[in-house]
Amino acid sequence: MIRRYLNLVSLTKSQIIIFVLLNICGLIFFLLPHNIFWNMLDLEPFYNEAKVIENFNSIGPDGRSVYVLSALILDTLYPILYTSLILGAYIKLFKNFKTLLFLPITAFSFDILENLQITRLNLNFPNINETHVYLSSMTTSAKWIVITITIFVLSYGIIKKRLKY
Description:
5 helices, mainly alpha, single chain
């Protein structure tokens, strides 16, 4: 089953469809009301309790409600899409190095865990726990570190393939 999924997401047609869906999803994030996009903790590594309070106050109670829904729905779809896109590219670029697949899967795992933690912060606001803020921030930061490494490896594979031809 996993092999079929990897074969499917590595097809050029699938890659194009996933890319378009990923961009639509990103656009929806950008268009969320209450300035949610500009105050999303997901985009900010190494935040602290003061930053959480500032961002949550900036979007207000209605914004926090929308943020919870977007974190649980839209921001679950987004990592599924970017992970599928990157896995498909990795399959094409690194046929003999399947162990590299752990990079986008690790990023996906951190992203989902981050969504759950930010949702918890949101639902408990203003009674947030400093330890939970720290753990959430570290998960967000780890996600961005792994995504950066994943993109560097992807770029390396693309450059290597281009130089081969």
